[in-house]
Amino acid sequence: MSSFQSLNKAEIGVFGGSGFYKFLDNVEEITIETPFGSPSDKYFVGNIGDKKVAFLPRHGRNHSIPPQKINYQANVWGMKQLGVQRIISPCAVGSLQKEIAPGSFMILDQYVDRTNSRIDTFYNGPIATHVSAAEPYSEEMRKLAIEVAEGLKIPFHKQGTVVVIQGPRFSSKSESIWFSKMGWETINMTQYPEVHLAKELELEVLGIALVTDYDCGLVGDVEPVTHEQVMKVFEANLSNLREFLFALIQKLPSSDSAWKGKIISSSRFL
């Protein structure tokens, strides 16, 4: 694997939707080139309270990169090069279970990979390295996120599995019914391989998902989801998401604590 030298520009990273950087103070735009090509956009580095935060719009600032075309390797590598030790990645997901209502949050603990042809490792030889994916999300970070959500009294679920599909299309009704019967809770297009690539760089991951819709096979009277519907629900809940993220960021331990070398992450269209 290629080596790098940390720029020490930020300690917390955010992968997410376009526009989050507008809520940062003293924003600096930084271009990073990686051994794996260019990230989705420039990194926006600024302050939230006393924390230095780096933000990257996963799909580009104009939402021009579809999920199957995102350079996940470059995005994750660039965050680490900036010095980021933790990443929060808010995301939109569809619900696969009736009790998971649109507008609620979910703190993810597992994923199921249903993507194809995505580059999902930094270890392409000559040394064979096998990184465990048994527990993809940080339990310590999940506990902190649960505390924040409980304090803000927002509707949320303490755990859940996200099945990650290739995109850019939504599921067929039969696929959606299958996912629901498997017991998986949510569905999105970008959680994998982002989470595993972060783990390969010895970074920990926290997945926080915003439920925007019921997937098409869930119940008989559910209309097929559209991108416009997803974004409408997401925008309606943006204030809750922003309040949650800011509270969580300010609760994160400083970089010289026992959390050193860790990352937070999550997604569907974000």
Low-pLDDT parts are: 257-270
Overall 3D shape:
globular
Main β-sheet description: 11 strands, mixed
Helix fraction, binned, reads 10-25%
CATH C-level class:
Alpha Beta
Structural class: alpha/beta
Total DSSP helices = 6
What is the strand tally?
11
> Termini distance?
28 Å
The percentage of residues in β strands lies in 15-25%
What is the number of domains? 1
| Rg for CA atoms | 17 Å
Helix-strand pattern, N to C?
Answer: EEEEHEEEHEEHEHEHH
Q: What is the name of the CATH superfamily? A: Nucleoside phosphorylase domain
Mean pLDDT: 86
CATH architecture field:
3-Layer(aba) Sandwich
Determine the CATH topology: Rossmann fold
Structure description:
It contains six helices and eleven strands. The chain is an alpha/beta fold and 270 residues long. The protein has one domain (12-251): Rossmann fold (3-Layer(aba) Sandwich). Strands 1, 2, 3, 4, 5, 6, 7, 8, 9, 10 and 11 form an eleven-stranded mixed sheet that branches. A hairpin with a 2-residue loop joins strand 3 (43-48) and strand 4 (51-57). Helix 1 packs across helix 4 and helix 2 crosses helix 6 (238-251). The two termini are 28 Å apart. 46% of the residues are buried. The model is unreliable at 257-270 (pLDDT under 50).
